[in-house]
Amino acid sequence: MLNKLREHTPIQMTLGLLMGICFGFLLQKGGVTHYGIIMGQLLLSDWTVVTVMLSAVVTGMIGIYLLRIPSLVRLHKKSGSFGSTVIGGLIFGIGFALLGYCPGTVAGAVGQGSLDALLGGVLGMLLGTAIYSILYDRLERKILHVGEFGKITLPQLLGVGPWPVILSSTAAILLFMIILELAGI
Amino acid sequence: MVTNFKSGDKWRVYKSGPVCKVVTRAALLLSTLAAAVAAAAAEGPLIPAGDPTIWQMKRWSPYAAGIGIGVLSWLVFLLSDNTLGASGSYAKTAGMLEKFLRGRKVAERAYYRENPPEIGWGWMLLVGVVIGAFLSAYLSGDFRLGMIPPMWKDRIGTDVLLRWLTAFGGGILLGIGSRWADGCTSGHGISGTLQLVVSSWVAVICFFIGGVMTALIIYH
Q1: Chain B hits for A52, Cβ within 8 Å
Q2: For B149, which of A21, A116, A129 is closest by C-beta distance?
Q3: Which of A59, B115, B135, B162 is the most exposed place for a label (fewest CB within 10 A)?
Q4: Residue B139 above 90 pLDDT?
Q5: Among the residues of B81-120, which ranges form H helices?
């Protein structure tokens, strides 16, 4: 039944659109489509962005690993390396602060009428991804595979089952949120 | 039990069973509802006086928004065997545009052979994000056309060209960086971290190191 649903292209296209509408709605209601909120986070004066992300991570993590027990879902792991994840991540970070939106929230910002997101951010991202497609060949050969750390999860890295990691990271995230609330930021 | 949703399968002719029909109807019903809400919003406020409804609130608690996104991620894994992510769809759009302008030879580039530039689930998701954010902003009266965000106006100034250049340059780096790191704040920062993937935790830490350092330089 799930297989049929997942292979049904028209349904998947519709579901993608509906899930996107929910995602965009939640991002905008969470305030993270606003330039000021994102820059406040990067200046460490407003912790809304991290609060939204960590709440999503705790909720998502517990649900996905529970759904995995009866094999209803499978994980979609990405491999990584120093050359790809660290260097790419730092370039991303510089762009993130210059633009003041990230790839998901810039689409949300377009929806709320932010023209800097549409004319600057989206057009820039289209050019940037096109530039990357040209560089890809050379990067793939020389940089992307330097210092690989593989397609692994934290439990695999630590050599333990998933639940000890899920419970301890949930506890750490909740403690962090309590500290943020007490500090009043 | 669990299948791969391979890109090659996307445009295959499908068999429609009773379950699929029910889900199609449900999807149609939901889109009709969304259209009705949008139409009602265009007519004026849903409730004329008194406290705003949750739909009309400009902001929800960040915990509520985050928990909502977490629950949404369950549905994405369960119903679509996919993850919430945004940056890959910009590359697909750029590829489709370049193919349109410069012909089919663009698709021979190694990156596009591995990531075909075509409309799929993730592309529809990104279109949905624009619509969903519009609905949220429109319902709450938060929709505002503007080139310069208030914080930029207060701290940096009203030069439209300066804001555009910074945003465009930032967008280029964001496009390159997100593909270089194979994910963005959604794909790595939410979907990858919630699966406890090592590369995603490394990526999100690097996003914030680069972002915080650059932000401190801009607003020193």
Answers
A1: 62, 65-66, 69
A2: A116
A3: B162
A4: yes
A5: 87-102, 110-114
